Amino acid sequence: MFENLQEKLGRAFKLLSGKGRISEKNIEDAVKQVKLSLLEADVNYKVVKEFIGGITEKALGEEVLKSFTPDQQFIKIVRDELIKMLGEKSVPLKLSSQPSKIMMVGLQGSGKTTTTAKLGTLLRKEGRKPLLVAADVYRPAAIDQLMQLGKQIDMPVFTGDRKNPVKIVQEAMQQAVRNINDVVILDTAGRLHIDDAMMRELKEIVSAVKPDEILMVVDAMTGQDAVNSAKAFNEALELSGFVVTKLDGDARGGVILSIRHVTGKPVKFIGISEKPDGIEAFHPDRVAGRILG
Ligand code: GDP
């Protein structure tokens, strides 16, 4: 995870290590290397600018210049700024209605269906009784995929009439009440690109079920495209947060470091493998730790 970014940032820290005394020029060089590392990791340009502004002032202060371990001081400054960009604190799910409703949205291939099952697994571990709902009626394979995942993890999946997503979701809610499922996770339709028909349908589902959470699933491998679609989804649907998937691949880090700042909405979970348990609650400090190695 983040190997490339980690290696590049390591080069910045090396510029300040093993020196008896460092100069402002040494610090400026290290800051420049941090900037390059973030840009190469596909972090949004505005985010990089703010990040660099944040660390420059602190790094040029007396503490780093006079320190016997300037590299360690500098790493701490970078770590603090990373945590700030990632959103400081983890933001838990807000599930207040009974049964609670989590609506999953996102582009096709982002990992939405897989994440629906993963989230079910995670919530069951916390003592809940989830019902998964297959409401992606345009991609019959998605319904079958969710049914298969349900079988694999031994969790009920509601499919309904496989035609009208609003009707499916409404019927699923009735089934949840009958079967005492306390949380319903809706896998909705995605497309390869954002289009009006998809957004209209998602809005209809939102007004019909009033979800407690609307989580957008974004693929970390798709870089700034993912951040741009996150912005568009958030403007149309008022998301409550994100799940960033495929961080186990060679994702460069751009998505996870930009999405909060660009949309103002928190990352709530990360996807770290294809398996049903490959999901974790998102903790900014832990991810910063992984980036720094
Ligand atoms: P959807 O079209 O958004 O519903 O996407 P899918 O759930 O079908 O996922 C697309 C592909 O991404 C599948 O092969 C999943 O196994 C894979 N996938 C989803 N999440 C992750 C993840 O966190 N890590 C990895 N490595 N693969 C993932």
From TrEMBL:
Places the protein is found: Cytoplasm
The organism of origin for this protein: Mesotoga prima MesG1.Ag.4.2
Enzyme category, top tier: hydrolase
Part of the intact protein present: 1 to 293 of 438
GO biological process: SRP-dependent cotranslational protein targeting to membrane
Family: Belongs to the GTP-binding SRP family. SRP54 subfamily.
Span of domain SRP54-type proteins GTP-binding: 266-279
Gene responsible for this protein: ffh
The name this protein goes by in its record: Signal recognition particle protein
Lineage: superkingdom: Bacteria
Function: Involved in targeting and insertion of nascent membrane proteins into the cytoplasmic membrane. Binds to the hydrophobic signal sequence of the ribosome-nascent chain (RNC) as it emerges from the ribosomes. The SRP-RNC complex is then targeted to the cytoplasmic membrane where it interacts with the SRP receptor FtsY.
